[in-house]
Design goal:
Bound molecules: NADP nicotinamide-adenine-dinucleotide phosphate, D-gluconic acid
Oligomer: single chain
Number of domains: 1
Strand order of the largest sheet: 3-2-1-4-5-6-7
CATH topology: Rossmann fold
Shape: globular
Amino acid sequence: MKLFDLTGKVALVTGGTHGIGMAIAKALAASGAKICVNDICDERLADCKKAYADSGIDAYVIRFDVTQEDDVDQGIGAIESEVGPIDILVNNAGIIKRVPILDMPVADFRQVIDIDLVAPFIISKRVVPSMIRRGGGKIINMCSMMSIYGRNSVSAYASAKGGLKLLTANMCCEWAKHNIQINGIAPGYIATSQTEAIRVNGHPFNHLVMTRTPAGRWGDPEDLAGAAIFLASSASQYVNGHLLFVDGGILANFGYVAGENDR
Ligand code: NAP
Ligand code: GCO
């Protein structure tokens, strides 16, 4: 089990105040890592500090906007001086806007790209020099089913997540020689605030997920814990540029679930 031991490691999970980010941060903490999380909302940071403490985790919380280089520089600088250099970076912060292309203002498209794709570039650029100096590190980019699929109304999100898949590959090509492993996690459909609107009973998308996912359920954020620990630990030293799907089997399923009388 030492392969999965993160004792002595400092992990930053962006957007780790709730949802998938919090589940991953708690998993890394359970494996021994010191957890740092950021957000853009002071109230969420205060609330999550207590939530982590209720789970026995002394999380370092800090406010910075992942899209603003100066903000990121100051935030990472504070973590490095108050906690220590970052060994594990989870680029989790992200948003989605479900709007058809013809109805989507360009500014909205740019905002999704900025948060979901440009921000991982900005933060990784800021964190990696220290990883190189110290002989290695881990980066996990939060990708998506939409890293490889499109669907109507999520053009900005799919463009960003598709780009993030290939940014992950390019980071691998440039930084693997420094013993840095950069991989993506691609969750299927997970029950968080991001999917609340399409998860309500009776929503056609909820029907699609429930019928097309062989596991027959939406994922829980905690379903991603094992994948995160694996990619953050020395168990994955020779895994690089990889996109690990955690999706209840939906990617394996063409989409028709046979009925009882299908013969
Ligand atoms: P979520 O509950 O909406 O959490 C997203 C987090 O990112 C929030 O804490 C949010 O903070 C933060 N954030 C947004 N913009 C930010 C910014 N500019 N600077 C700093 N933090 C910012 O979503 P989630 O479902 O947990 O998703 C987490 C990640 O997984 C996202 O990248 C998402 O695309 C990806 N993902 C989700 C699913 C799914 O089915 N849920 C599946 C695949 C991939 P605020 O709440 O304060 O805005
Ligand atoms: C959507 C969903 C998806 C999931 C996730 C799938 O509207 O299509 O929100 O985008 O959030 O990204 O991997």
